[in-house]
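Residues pack. One example:


***
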Amino acid sequence: MRCEMCGKETPTPVRALVERSTLVVCPACVKFGKTLGPVAVPRPAAHAARSPAPGVARQPAAAAAEDAVFEEGPALAEDFGTRLRRAREQLGLTQEQLGAKINERQSVVAKLETGAFTPDDPLRRKLERTLGVTLVEKQA
């Protein structure tokens, strides 16, 4: 099973209460909440290798849908910080002014420009819209 916090595959999942939400987490992430107990890991049945009867849904599709949650999106450009700084300077904005436009603190903008902080998708899209710049690399 996969940890619902970090996404790592874990052979010994644990059910935990994290900020009023019940999650299945790995032993490393259980420290962020209160342990509720172990999770029974389903064992594959001996007959699972056989093809299902006609009209019966196949299990691998459900497993693939679960794995899709952890797929990575477009790759962030290695020089995203430089792209941000150049675009901000071309618009004549200070870090503080850009932060105000995107509803973030100046320190966040500074960390983004130095590469010390990687933006999540909503922040990346907000920056791209505001600055008119592309921060992702085209995948081949």
About this structure: The beta strands are 14-18, 21-25, 34-38. The first helix runs from residue 59 to 68.
